[in-house]
Amino acid sequence: MSDAEQLFRDIANQIVSTNDAALGTMFGKPVVMIAKKAFAVFFKDTMVFKLSEEDHRFAMALFGAELWDPSGKHRPMREWVQVPYEHREHWLGLAASALKHVQSTIQPEA
């Protein structure tokens, strides 16, 4: 297991232990999700986050960050930012921001 994957697992476990989040898979990749909606993904030794506008701009400004294109067919997912391991000091904060963003989109049950 790479250092990047271990850090993802550590962050994922921390989030799951302190929130109503769960581990799962999306596109065959490990993810952290809430209410069955993914907000953080481990992909090719990077961490990918579904972010709101302000956090999205911050993440995209990091050198090497890019919109996530899981298919590799030049169809990036515009809300998702792939952040390289070099910026691992931001991973936990971005994961928390992604969790908050996705939580804000969840409709309360009637």
Characterization of this structure:
A 6-stranded antiparallel beta sheet has the order 1-2-3-4-6-5. It has one domain (3-85). The protein is globular, with a radius of gyration of 13 Å. 33% of the residues are buried. The chain is 35% helix and 32% strand. It starts with a helix and ends in a 5-residue tail after the last helix. It is of the alpha+beta class and 110 residues long. The mean pLDDT is 94. The protein has helices spanning 3-18, 53-60, 91-105, and strands at residues 21-26, 29-34, 37-43, 46-50, 66-68, 77-84. The protein contains 3 helices and 6 strands.
Brief account:
The protein is α+β, with helices and mostly antiparallel strands. The protein is 35% helix and 32% strand.
Inertia-based shape: globular
> What's the mean pLDDT score?
94
Classify the beta-strand content into a percent band: 25-35%
Number of domains: 1
Structural class: alpha+beta
Order of helices and strands: HEEEEHEEH
Q: Helix count? A: 3
Side-by-side strand order of the widest sheet: 1-2-3-4-6-5
- Residue ranges: pLDDT <50 for 5 or more in a row? none
Number of strands: 6
Distance between the termini: 43 Å
The major sheet is characterized as:
6 strands, antiparallel
In terms of quaternary structure, what is this? single chain
Task: Please state the CA-atom Rg, rounded to the nearest Å.
Answer: 13 Å
Helix percentage: 25-40%
List keywords for this structure.
6-stranded antiparallel beta sheet; 6 strands; alpha+beta; 110 residues
Question: Which helices and strands occur, and which strands form pairs?
Answer:
Blueprint: H1 3-18, E1 21-26, E2 29-34, E3 37-43, E4 46-50, H2 53-60, E5 66-68, E6 77-84, H3 91-105
Antiparallel strand pairs: 1-2, 2-3, 3-4, 4-6, 5-6
